[in-house]
Design a protein that fits this description.
Order of helices and strands: HHHHHHHHHH
Shape: flat
CATH superfamily: MetI-like
CATH architecture: Orthogonal Bundle
Number of domains: 1
Radius of gyration: 32 Å
Distance between the termini: 105 Å
Oligomer: single chain
């Protein structure tokens, strides 16, 4: 119990001294995660769509070669950035460019470097997510779009992509939550995010565990709030559960239920034919022919 009390006191002391730095780190983390996720989604959408462009043996050699080349390049990009840690990607991008170009190419803006690294990492994951989302849409949707004269671009924009977007929305939110946590490796390029503030506070006070506890609580709060907002967005995309069936529309005609304004159907008591039958008068049958009394 004494240790918990001491931990709480140390956390209060750290927060009282570095609260502005902690809040600034949280702000930078959220901005970086949000911007990088949006850019990564754009990269993923482009890569996913390019991977699903169909081609046949009857197409020209140039078209087939070009599409196959694009798929090979995207596959290499996806495998490299999914198969290596983001911290090493940051090192290669931020320190590798000056190393190989003799400082000709280098990042003067640390924000640009951090956004680039997180974006291309997110794009690699989103490329496969988008491809899977497009392939998850029933093939009959594509056939139906082609049957009414749509080309591939129109089919993707108006038919396939809206359905695929709904399917991959949870994964987009998942990538954002992952980026909130994974931006902690950007300290390697001196980007001041939430984890970098923790390292600075520890270096000044040597209170590693109290500062780490503050970090854990901060990251947990950010991810819980993000999860709540994303679930609300998913519910909004699903639409309302209160709806009316199309048959309830007054303009819908169903067999045996439509009646002209001036008379009822041949099957109810408002019908002239029904009344004629009741009075023993000849009427008309269901095909419009006169019925004669035998």
């Amino acid at each position: 119990m004494n240790r918990l009390t001491q931990l709480g006191a140390d956390m209060v002391s750290l927060w009282g001294t570095y609260w502005e730095s902690y809040l600034n780190g949280i702000k930078n983390t959220l901005i970086l995660a949000l911007v990088a996720t949006l850019i990564g989604c754009l990269i993923g959408f482009i890569c996913g769509i390019l991977q699903t462009i169909p081609y046949a043996k009857t197409d020209s050699l140039v078209k087939r070669f070009f599409l196959k080349l694009i798929r090979v390049i995207i596959r290499i990009y996806v495998e490299v950035f999914r198969g290596t840690p983001m911290v090493l990607q940051a090192v290669f991008v931020y320190y590798g460019l000056p190393y190989f170009t003799n400082n000709t190419l280098m990042f003067n803006n640390i924000w640009a470097a951090a956004i680039l690294v997180v974006s291309i990492n997110t794009g690699a994951y989103m490329a496969e997510t988008v491809r899977g989302g497009i392939m998850s849409v029933d093939s009959g949707q594509t056939e139906g779009a082609k049957a009414i004269g749509m080309n591939h671009f129109q089919t993707m924009v108006y038919v396939i992509f809206p359905q695929a977007l709904r399917n991959i929305t949870p994964q987009i939110g998942n990538n954002f939550i992952i980026n909130v946590k994974d931006t902690s490796v950007m300290f390697i390029i001196s980007f001041t995010e939430f984890f970098a503030v923790h390292r600075a506070a520890v270096g000044a006070t040597y209170q590693y565990f109290p500062s780490a506890t503050i970090e854990m609580i901060g990251y947990l709060c950010m991810t819980l709030i993000a999860s709540f907002l994303l679930r609300r967005m998913e519910k909004w995309l699903e639409g309302s559960d209160s709806y009316e069936l199309a048959q309830a529309d007054q303009l819908v005609m169903s067999a045996g239920t439509y009646s002209y304004p001036d008379r009822g159907t041949p099957f109810d008591e408002k019908s002239k034919e029904y009344k004629d039958q009741g009075n023993g008068k000849p009427g008309r049958d269901g095909h419009g022919r006169n019925r004669r009394k035998k």
